[in-house]
């Protein structure tokens, strides 16, 4: 113990004599220490940055990765038990349980990620005045603030910015197909962020090509439905 203390005292005296005899050596030591500190800090920042980068991950924009995922996934088929219609949706979309949907004949499939939401839904809308396809497109298109419209023999398609209860949802759009059948419209709709328009093109194509019934002449509850 005493020997150790004596050694420390001698070491300090030696360093003091060195500084007195060679003051430039102290400056040199300070410069060396400064350079070491800068090098250490730079290395730490570099290592931290590398550690935070995705390891072998996909660094493409989210919308591009989403497009690939939608294009590559399989499509599930849902059949409504009340009206017998069928819809197809991406396998990784989450289905809302029928027990949580109050509206008869409706279904909902959604996807959440990266602070965005994409929702595909089908529902029944009444047509008590038996509006024609053209009349329905004009009336419903106006109420939904549609900016693009097209029609076929028994359907029309609308798209535009998304409004809910009269208020525009910033950055979101909708695309919907209405198929006329007697006093109702069968509706298949997609709501999505505008910057994901390219990513959801596969779903939009399926909506445009949607057939309400796939070779089905009646539903399980006794409704008589002609082959569509």
Q: What keyword list fits this structure?
A:
228 residues, alpha+beta, 7-stranded antiparallel sheet, two-stranded antiparallel ribbon, 35% helix, 30% strand, disordered N terminus, disordered C terminus
* Tally of DSSP β-strands: 9
Radius of gyration: 34 Å
**Cα end-to-end separation:** 99 Å
What is the global morphology? globular
Strand content: 25-35%
Return the average pLDDT rounded to an integer: 81
How would you characterize the largest beta sheet? Answer: 7 strands, antiparallel
Write the H/E string, N to C.
HHHEEEEEHEEEEH
> Uncertain segments of ≥5 residues (pLDDT<50)?
1-9, 24-29, 46-53, 218-228
Structural class of the secondary elements? alpha+beta
Number of helices: 5
Q: What percent of the residues sit in helical stretches (DSSP H or I)?
A: 25-40%
Main sheet: strand order: 3-4-5-9-8-7-6
Describe this structure in words.
This protein has 228 residues and is an alpha+beta fold. It is 35% helix and 30% strand. The chain is built from five helices and nine strands; from the N terminus they run αααβββββαββββα. The strands form two sheets. A seven-stranded antiparallel β-sheet has the order 3-4-5-9-8-7-6, with helices on both faces. A two-stranded antiparallel sheet has the order 1-2. The longest helix has 30 residues, at 23-52. The protein is globular and about 55 Å long. The chain starts with a helix and ends in a 20-residue tail after the last helix.
Question: What is the topological layout?
Answer:
Layout: H1 2-21, H2 23-52, H3 62-72, E1 75-79, E2 86-90, E3 94-95, E4 107-113, E5 116-126, H4 133-143, E6 148-151, E7 155-164, E8 167-181, E9 184-193, H5 201-208
Antiparallel strand pairs: 1-2, 3-4, 4-5, 5-9, 6-7, 7-8, 8-9
Helix pairs in contact: 1-2
């Amino acid at each position: 113990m005493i020997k150790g203390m004596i050694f420390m005292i001698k070491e300090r005296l030696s360093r003091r004599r060195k500084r007195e005899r060679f003051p430039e050596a102290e400056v040199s030591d300070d410069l060396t220490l400064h350079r070491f500190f800068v090098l250490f800090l730079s290395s730490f920042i570099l290592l931290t940055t590398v550690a935070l980068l995705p390891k072998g991950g996909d660094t493409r924009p989210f919308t591009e990765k989403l497009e690939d995922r939608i294009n590559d996934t399989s499509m599930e088929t849902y059949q409504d038990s009340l009206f017998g219609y069928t819809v197809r949706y991406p396998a990784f979309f989450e289905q809302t349980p029928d027990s949580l949907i109050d509206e008869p004949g409706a279904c909902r499939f959604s996807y959440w990620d990266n602070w965005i939401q994409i929702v595909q839904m089908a529902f029944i809308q009444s047509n008590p005045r038996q509006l024609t396809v053209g009349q329905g497109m004009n009336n419903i298109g106006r109420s939904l603030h549609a900016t693009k419209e097209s029609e076929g023999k028994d359907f029309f398609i609308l798209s535009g910015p998304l409004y809910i209860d009269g208020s525009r949802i910033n950055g979101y759009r909708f695309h919907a197909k209405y198929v006329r059948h007697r006093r109702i419209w069968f509706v298949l709709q997609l709501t999505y962020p505008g910057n994901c328009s390219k990513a959801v093109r596969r779903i939009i194509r399926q909506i445009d090509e949607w057939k309400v019934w796939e070779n089905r002449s009646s539903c399980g509850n006794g409704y008589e439905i002609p082959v569509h």
